[in-house]
Amino acid sequence: MSGAPVKFGVLHDAPRIDPRNPALRAMTLRVEECNAAGGIEGRQVELVFHAGNGAHDGLPENCAAGWRYLAAMPEVVGILGPGITDNVLAVIDTVEAGRVATMQWSGDERARGEWLFHFQAGSLQEEGPYLARLMKRLGHRTVGVLQTGGPVGDGFYGGFEQSARDLGLEIVSRQFAHVHATDVRPEMERLRRASPDCVVFLGMAEPTVAFGRAIKAMGWKVPRYSNIAMLAVARDPKDAADNEGIIWTDQYDPRNETLQRVRSAYTKRYGEPPPETFTASFGYDMMTLMLEGLRLAPSMTRAGLKTGLERVKQLPCATGGLNPIMGFAPWDRAAIKGPDLLMYRTVRNGKCVTWEG
Fold first, then answer.
1. Domain of residue 229, CATH code
2. How far is Cα 17 from Cα 303, in angstroms, rounded to an integer?
Protein backbone atom coordinates (compact mmCIF):
# COMPACT_ATOMS: atom_id res chain seq x y z
CA MET A 1 0.00 0.00 0.00
CA SER A 2 1.09 3.58 -0.60
CA GLY A 3 0.49 6.79 1.33
CA ALA A 4 0.01 7.41 5.02
CA PRO A 5 -2.63 5.35 6.80
CA VAL A 6 -6.07 6.85 7.22
CA LYS A 7 -7.53 6.45 10.70
CA PHE A 8 -10.90 6.18 12.37
CA GLY A 9 -11.29 6.92 16.06
CA VAL A 10 -13.43 4.58 18.15
CA LEU A 11 -14.84 6.23 21.27
CA HIS A 12 -16.13 3.51 23.59
CA ASP A 13 -18.22 4.41 26.62
CA ALA A 14 -16.37 2.11 29.03
CA PRO A 15 -13.63 3.13 31.52
CA ARG A 16 -11.18 0.89 29.66
CA ILE A 17 -10.93 -0.81 26.28
CA ASP A 18 -11.68 -4.53 26.41
CA PRO A 19 -9.90 -6.24 23.48
CA ARG A 20 -12.47 -9.04 23.65
CA ASN A 21 -15.47 -6.75 23.24
CA PRO A 22 -17.49 -8.25 20.33
CA ALA A 23 -18.39 -4.89 18.76
CA LEU A 24 -14.77 -3.68 18.80
CA ARG A 25 -13.56 -7.04 17.52
CA ALA A 26 -16.04 -6.86 14.65
CA MET A 27 -14.87 -3.35 13.73
CA THR A 28 -11.30 -4.63 13.65
CA LEU A 29 -12.34 -7.60 11.50
CA ARG A 30 -14.03 -5.34 8.96
CA VAL A 31 -10.96 -3.09 8.74
CA GLU A 32 -8.72 -6.13 8.23
CA GLU A 33 -10.96 -7.29 5.39
CA CYS A 34 -10.73 -3.85 3.80
CA ASN A 35 -6.94 -3.74 4.06
CA ALA A 36 -6.62 -7.27 2.66
CA ALA A 37 -8.58 -6.08 -0.38
CA GLY A 38 -6.25 -3.11 -0.95
CA GLY A 39 -7.50 -0.56 1.53
CA ILE A 40 -9.04 2.74 0.43
CA GLU A 41 -7.28 4.26 -2.58
CA GLY A 42 -4.21 2.23 -1.70
CA ARG A 43 -4.09 3.50 1.87
CA GLN A 44 -4.18 1.25 4.90
CA VAL A 45 -7.00 1.89 7.35
CA GLU A 46 -6.26 1.91 11.08
CA LEU A 47 -8.38 2.22 14.21
CA VAL A 48 -7.56 4.35 17.25
CA PHE A 49 -9.47 3.09 20.30
CA HIS A 50 -10.17 5.39 23.23
CA ALA A 51 -12.01 4.62 26.48
CA GLY A 52 -14.50 7.41 27.13
CA ASN A 53 -15.25 6.54 30.78
CA GLY A 54 -18.78 7.82 30.35
CA ALA A 55 -22.06 6.79 31.94
CA HIS A 56 -22.93 4.62 33.66
CA ASP A 57 -19.61 4.02 35.40
CA GLY A 58 -18.19 7.48 34.76
CA LEU A 59 -19.65 10.79 33.58
CA PRO A 60 -21.15 11.72 30.19
CA GLU A 61 -18.89 14.77 29.88
CA ASN A 62 -15.89 12.43 29.92
CA CYS A 63 -17.03 11.20 26.52
CA ALA A 64 -17.07 14.76 25.20
CA ALA A 65 -13.45 15.10 26.34
CA GLY A 66 -12.66 11.75 24.73
CA TRP A 67 -14.18 12.89 21.46
CA ARG A 68 -12.02 16.02 21.49
CA TYR A 69 -8.96 13.84 22.16
CA LEU A 70 -9.61 11.78 19.02
CA ALA A 71 -10.59 14.79 16.92
CA ALA A 72 -7.29 16.49 17.78
CA MET A 73 -5.47 13.85 15.71
CA PRO A 74 -5.36 15.24 12.15
CA GLU A 75 -5.08 11.77 10.63
CA VAL A 76 -8.44 10.74 12.17
CA VAL A 77 -11.04 11.39 9.45
CA GLY A 78 -14.06 10.05 11.34
CA ILE A 79 -15.15 8.81 14.75
CA LEU A 80 -17.38 5.92 15.82
CA GLY A 81 -19.13 6.24 19.18
CA PRO A 82 -20.16 6.69 21.85
CA GLY A 83 -23.06 4.28 22.28
CA ILE A 84 -24.93 5.03 25.53
CA THR A 85 -27.65 7.65 25.23
CA ASP A 86 -26.47 9.73 28.21
CA ASN A 87 -23.02 10.04 26.64
CA VAL A 88 -24.26 10.64 23.11
CA LEU A 89 -26.47 13.51 24.22
CA ALA A 90 -23.42 15.03 25.93
CA VAL A 91 -21.32 15.06 22.75
CA ILE A 92 -23.82 16.51 20.26
CA ASP A 93 -22.67 20.12 20.50
CA THR A 94 -19.01 19.06 20.59
CA VAL A 95 -19.41 17.04 17.38
CA GLU A 96 -21.23 19.80 15.54
CA ALA A 97 -18.65 22.40 16.59
CA GLY A 98 -15.72 20.10 15.81
CA ARG A 99 -16.99 19.15 12.33
CA VAL A 100 -15.77 15.55 12.25
CA ALA A 101 -18.17 12.96 10.82
CA THR A 102 -19.21 10.82 13.79
CA MET A 103 -21.42 7.74 13.94
CA GLN A 104 -23.00 7.03 17.31
CA TRP A 105 -24.77 3.79 18.17
CA SER A 106 -27.22 4.75 20.89
CA GLY A 107 -30.95 4.19 20.64
CA ASP A 108 -31.81 7.90 20.66
CA GLU A 109 -32.94 9.53 17.43
CA ARG A 110 -32.49 13.00 18.98
CA ALA A 111 -28.72 12.58 18.67
CA ARG A 112 -28.39 13.40 14.99
CA GLY A 113 -26.97 16.42 13.23
CA GLU A 114 -25.08 17.68 10.23
CA TRP A 115 -21.96 15.83 11.40
CA LEU A 116 -23.59 13.28 13.70
CA PHE A 117 -24.81 10.08 12.05
CA HIS A 118 -26.91 7.50 13.89
CA PHE A 119 -26.64 3.72 13.75
CA GLN A 120 -29.77 2.55 15.56
CA ALA A 121 -28.56 -0.06 18.03
CA GLY A 122 -32.03 -0.28 19.47
CA SER A 123 -34.47 2.62 19.46
CA LEU A 124 -35.85 4.51 22.44
CA GLN A 125 -38.57 5.98 20.27
CA GLU A 126 -39.55 2.88 18.24
CA GLU A 127 -39.39 0.00 20.71
CA GLY A 128 -42.14 1.20 23.03
CA PRO A 129 -44.77 1.34 20.27
CA TYR A 130 -43.51 -2.00 18.94
CA LEU A 131 -44.11 -3.60 22.35
CA ALA A 132 -47.45 -1.88 22.97
CA ARG A 133 -48.86 -3.09 19.66
CA LEU A 134 -47.84 -6.66 20.48
CA MET A 135 -49.46 -6.49 23.92
CA LYS A 136 -52.67 -5.22 22.35
CA ARG A 137 -52.57 -7.96 19.72
CA LEU A 138 -52.15 -10.61 22.42
CA GLY A 139 -55.21 -9.36 24.27
CA HIS A 140 -53.71 -7.47 27.22
CA ARG A 141 -55.69 -4.59 28.65
CA THR A 142 -53.52 -3.44 31.57
CA VAL A 143 -49.76 -3.32 32.10
CA GLY A 144 -47.33 -2.64 34.92
CA VAL A 145 -44.06 -0.88 34.09
CA LEU A 146 -40.63 -1.18 35.69
CA GLN A 147 -38.20 1.34 34.23
CA THR A 148 -34.79 2.76 34.92
CA GLY A 149 -34.47 6.51 35.33
CA GLY A 150 -32.51 8.89 33.14
CA PRO A 151 -32.61 9.47 29.38
CA VAL A 152 -32.77 5.77 28.46
CA GLY A 153 -35.62 4.66 30.71
CA ASP A 154 -37.53 7.90 30.18
CA GLY A 155 -37.01 7.63 26.42
CA PHE A 156 -38.36 4.10 26.25
CA TYR A 157 -41.28 4.99 28.51
CA GLY A 158 -42.27 8.06 26.50
CA GLY A 159 -42.85 6.11 23.31
CA PHE A 160 -44.52 3.25 25.14
CA GLU A 161 -46.88 5.45 27.16
CA GLN A 162 -48.12 7.34 24.11
CA SER A 163 -48.78 4.15 22.15
CA ALA A 164 -50.42 2.46 25.14
CA ARG A 165 -52.77 5.41 25.49
CA ASP A 166 -53.59 5.37 21.78
CA LEU A 167 -54.30 1.62 21.89
CA GLY A 168 -56.40 1.70 25.05
CA LEU A 169 -53.79 -0.19 27.07
CA GLU A 170 -53.93 1.06 30.67
CA ILE A 171 -50.72 1.51 32.68
CA VAL A 172 -51.86 0.57 36.20
CA SER A 173 -48.50 1.01 37.97
CA ARG A 174 -45.12 2.51 37.12
CA GLN A 175 -42.08 1.71 39.25
CA PHE A 176 -38.48 2.93 39.03
CA ALA A 177 -35.13 1.19 39.53
CA HIS A 178 -31.61 2.60 39.52
CA VAL A 179 -29.40 1.37 36.67
CA HIS A 180 -27.10 -0.33 39.21
CA ALA A 181 -29.91 -2.05 41.15
CA THR A 182 -29.49 -5.83 41.26
CA ASP A 183 -32.60 -6.51 43.35
CA VAL A 184 -35.92 -5.16 42.09
CA ARG A 185 -38.26 -7.42 44.06
CA PRO A 186 -39.78 -4.57 46.13
CA GLU A 187 -40.68 -2.75 42.90
CA MET A 188 -42.11 -5.93 41.38
CA GLU A 189 -44.18 -6.61 44.51
CA ARG A 190 -45.73 -3.17 44.13
CA LEU A 191 -46.50 -3.94 40.49
CA ARG A 192 -48.17 -7.22 41.47
CA ARG A 193 -50.46 -5.42 43.90
CA ALA A 194 -51.83 -3.45 40.93
CA SER A 195 -52.89 -6.76 39.25
CA PRO A 196 -51.76 -5.96 35.67
CA ASP A 197 -52.44 -8.35 32.78
CA CYS A 198 -48.73 -8.15 31.91
CA VAL A 199 -45.52 -6.36 32.92
CA VAL A 200 -42.77 -4.68 30.92
CA PHE A 201 -39.21 -3.61 31.66
CA LEU A 202 -38.06 -0.39 29.98
CA GLY A 203 -34.44 0.60 30.49
CA MET A 204 -30.98 -0.91 30.64
CA ALA A 205 -28.16 -2.21 32.85
CA GLU A 206 -28.49 -4.23 36.08
CA PRO A 207 -32.30 -4.24 36.51
CA THR A 208 -32.70 -5.89 33.11
CA VAL A 209 -32.08 -9.48 34.20
CA ALA A 210 -33.10 -8.71 37.80
CA PHE A 211 -36.61 -8.09 36.43
CA GLY A 212 -37.18 -11.74 35.53
CA ARG A 213 -35.22 -13.01 38.52
CA ALA A 214 -37.60 -11.19 40.86
CA ILE A 215 -40.71 -12.43 39.06
CA LYS A 216 -39.46 -16.01 39.28
CA ALA A 217 -38.59 -15.67 42.98
CA MET A 218 -42.08 -14.30 43.65
CA GLY A 219 -43.72 -17.22 41.86
CA TRP A 220 -45.70 -14.70 39.83
CA LYS A 221 -47.16 -16.16 36.65
CA VAL A 222 -47.51 -13.06 34.50
CA PRO A 223 -46.67 -12.37 30.84
CA ARG A 224 -43.58 -10.20 30.68
CA TYR A 225 -41.96 -8.03 28.00
CA SER A 226 -38.86 -5.88 27.61
CA ASN A 227 -36.93 -3.60 25.31
CA ILE A 228 -33.68 -4.65 23.62
CA ALA A 229 -31.58 -4.59 26.79
CA MET A 230 -33.00 -8.05 27.52
CA LEU A 231 -30.57 -9.46 24.93
CA ALA A 232 -28.33 -9.77 28.00
CA VAL A 233 -30.03 -13.07 28.84
CA ALA A 234 -28.38 -14.66 25.80
CA ARG A 235 -25.00 -14.40 27.55
CA ASP A 236 -25.83 -16.52 30.60
CA PRO A 237 -27.93 -19.72 30.73
CA LYS A 238 -29.05 -18.91 34.28
CA ASP A 239 -30.31 -15.48 33.24
CA ALA A 240 -32.14 -17.11 30.33
CA ALA A 241 -33.75 -19.64 32.68
CA ASP A 242 -34.83 -16.86 35.05
CA ASN A 243 -36.53 -15.08 32.15
CA GLU A 244 -38.28 -18.05 30.51
CA GLY A 245 -41.14 -16.85 28.30
CA ILE A 246 -40.23 -13.16 28.19
CA ILE A 247 -40.65 -11.42 24.82
CA TRP A 248 -38.41 -8.50 23.91
CA THR A 249 -37.55 -6.30 20.97
CA ASP A 250 -34.25 -7.24 19.36
CA GLN A 251 -32.08 -6.84 16.27
CA TYR A 252 -30.63 -10.33 16.03
CA ASP A 253 -32.27 -12.63 13.49
CA PRO A 254 -30.29 -15.84 12.83
CA ARG A 255 -32.00 -16.13 9.43
CA ASN A 256 -30.37 -12.89 8.23
CA GLU A 257 -27.84 -13.97 5.58
CA THR A 258 -25.57 -10.97 6.15
CA LEU A 259 -25.48 -11.81 9.85
CA GLN A 260 -24.58 -15.40 9.00
CA ARG A 261 -21.60 -14.23 6.92
CA VAL A 262 -20.43 -11.89 9.68
CA ARG A 263 -20.64 -14.63 12.30
CA SER A 264 -18.69 -17.03 10.08
CA ALA A 265 -15.92 -14.50 9.41
CA TYR A 266 -15.77 -13.52 13.10
CA THR A 267 -15.48 -17.15 14.19
CA LYS A 268 -12.71 -17.82 11.69
CA ARG A 269 -10.79 -14.70 12.77
CA TYR A 270 -11.09 -15.09 16.55
CA GLY A 271 -11.43 -18.84 16.99
CA GLU A 272 -14.80 -18.55 18.72
CA PRO A 273 -18.25 -17.38 17.65
CA PRO A 274 -19.57 -14.01 18.77
CA PRO A 275 -22.39 -13.95 21.33
CA GLU A 276 -25.85 -14.65 19.98
CA THR A 277 -26.71 -10.97 20.23
CA PHE A 278 -26.41 -8.01 17.90
CA THR A 279 -23.20 -6.64 19.47
CA ALA A 280 -20.83 -8.02 16.83
CA SER A 281 -23.17 -7.27 13.94
CA PHE A 282 -23.59 -3.58 14.72
CA GLY A 283 -19.84 -3.12 15.10
CA TYR A 284 -19.30 -4.73 11.71
CA ASP A 285 -22.14 -2.77 10.08
CA MET A 286 -20.95 0.57 11.41
CA MET A 287 -17.44 -0.03 10.15
CA THR A 288 -18.85 -1.08 6.77
CA LEU A 289 -20.71 2.23 6.55
CA MET A 290 -17.62 4.25 7.46
CA LEU A 291 -15.42 2.43 4.95
CA GLU A 292 -17.98 2.76 2.18
CA GLY A 293 -18.41 6.44 3.03
CA LEU A 294 -14.67 6.95 2.71
CA ARG A 295 -14.59 5.05 -0.58
CA LEU A 296 -17.33 7.31 -1.97
CA ALA A 297 -15.85 10.50 -0.53
CA PRO A 298 -14.86 13.20 -3.05
CA SER A 299 -11.71 13.76 -0.98
CA MET A 300 -10.04 11.84 1.82
CA THR A 301 -10.87 14.52 4.36
CA ARG A 302 -13.32 14.94 7.20
CA ALA A 303 -15.67 16.97 5.04
CA GLY A 304 -15.19 14.45 2.26
CA LEU A 305 -16.20 11.60 4.55
CA LYS A 306 -19.42 13.39 5.50
CA THR A 307 -20.33 13.74 1.84
CA GLY A 308 -19.31 10.15 1.17
CA LEU A 309 -21.55 8.84 3.95
CA GLU A 310 -24.46 10.74 2.42
CA ARG A 311 -23.83 8.79 -0.80
CA VAL A 312 -24.02 5.35 0.84
CA LYS A 313 -27.20 3.54 -0.23
CA GLN A 314 -28.87 0.17 0.30
CA LEU A 315 -26.03 -1.82 1.82
CA PRO A 316 -26.99 -5.22 3.27
CA CYS A 317 -27.19 -5.01 7.04
CA ALA A 318 -26.47 -7.72 9.62
CA THR A 319 -28.30 -5.84 12.39
CA GLY A 320 -32.08 -6.04 12.57
CA GLY A 321 -34.60 -8.50 11.24
CA LEU A 322 -34.52 -10.66 8.14
CA ASN A 323 -33.68 -8.18 5.37
CA PRO A 324 -32.70 -4.71 6.63
CA ILE A 325 -30.62 -2.35 4.52
CA MET A 326 -28.57 0.67 5.54
CA GLY A 327 -27.40 3.98 4.14
CA PHE A 328 -27.71 7.74 4.48
CA ALA A 329 -28.59 10.86 2.50
CA PRO A 330 -28.21 14.62 2.91
CA TRP A 331 -30.05 15.33 6.18
CA ASP A 332 -30.96 11.66 6.60
CA ARG A 333 -28.80 10.42 9.45
CA ALA A 334 -30.60 7.16 10.38
CA ALA A 335 -28.62 4.17 9.11
CA ILE A 336 -31.03 1.22 9.14
CA LYS A 337 -33.95 1.34 6.71
CA GLY A 338 -37.15 -0.60 6.23
CA PRO A 339 -39.59 -2.60 8.34
CA ASP A 340 -36.88 -4.96 9.60
CA LEU A 341 -35.30 -2.46 12.00
CA LEU A 342 -36.72 -4.51 14.88
CA MET A 343 -38.05 -8.00 15.55
CA TYR A 344 -38.99 -10.04 18.62
CA ARG A 345 -37.06 -12.68 20.58
CA THR A 346 -38.04 -14.86 23.48
CA VAL A 347 -36.66 -17.50 25.83
CA ARG A 348 -38.10 -20.93 25.10
CA ASN A 349 -36.94 -23.96 27.08
CA GLY A 350 -33.94 -21.98 28.28
CA LYS A 351 -32.86 -20.95 24.76
CA CYS A 352 -33.08 -17.52 23.13
CA VAL A 353 -35.02 -17.85 19.88
CA THR A 354 -36.88 -15.69 17.38
CA TRP A 355 -40.50 -15.06 18.39
CA GLU A 356 -42.86 -15.22 15.44
CA GLY A 357 -46.26 -15.20 17.15
1. 3.40.50.2300
2. 28
121-139 as b/e: b if 16+ CB within 10 A: bbbbbbbbbbbbebbbeee
Q: In what order do the strands lie in the sheet with 336-337?
A: 315-316, 325-326, 336-337
Count of the separate structural domains present in the chain? 2
Examine the domain organization and report whether 33 and 114 are in the same domain: yes
Which residues make beta-bridge pairs with 146?
175, 201
Cβ neighbours of 256 (radius 10 Å): 24
Final residue belonging to a domain, choices 204, 226, 250: 250
Strand order in the sheet with 45-51: 45-51, 6-12, 76-80, 101-104, 116-118
Residue 226 pLDDT exceeds 50: yes
Report the relative pairing of strands 198-202 and 247-250 from DSSP bridges.
Answer: unpaired
Residues 107 and 127 sit within 8 Å (Cβ to Cβ): yes
Domain that holds residue 187: 124-250
Q: What is the pLDDT of residue 81?
A: 98
Same domain for 137 and 246, yes or no, is yes
Beta bridge partners of 171: 143
Residues in the chain: 357
Of 111, 107, 109, residue with least CA distance to 64: 111
What pTM, to 2 d.p., does this model score? 0.96
For residue 356, give the 3-state DSSP assignment: coil
Q: C-alpha distances in angstroms, 65 versus 59, 71, 94, 111?
A: 10, 10, 9, 17
Closest among 104, 6, 89 to 48, alpha carbons compared: 6
Q: Are 47 and 54 in contact (CB under 8 A)?
A: no
Helices and strands of the chain, counted as H and E runs: 11, 15
268 is a domain residue: yes
pLDDT confidence band for 1 (50 / 70 / 90): very low
Q: Are residues 154 and 239 in the same domain?
A: yes
* pLDDT-above-70 percentage for the chain: 99
Amino acid at 83: G
Averaged confidence pLDDT in the chain: 97
Nearest to 133, CA basis, from 164, 172, 171: 164
Helix, strand or coil, per DSSP, at residue 146: strand
CB 101 within 8 A of CB 117: yes
Is 351 domain-assigned? no
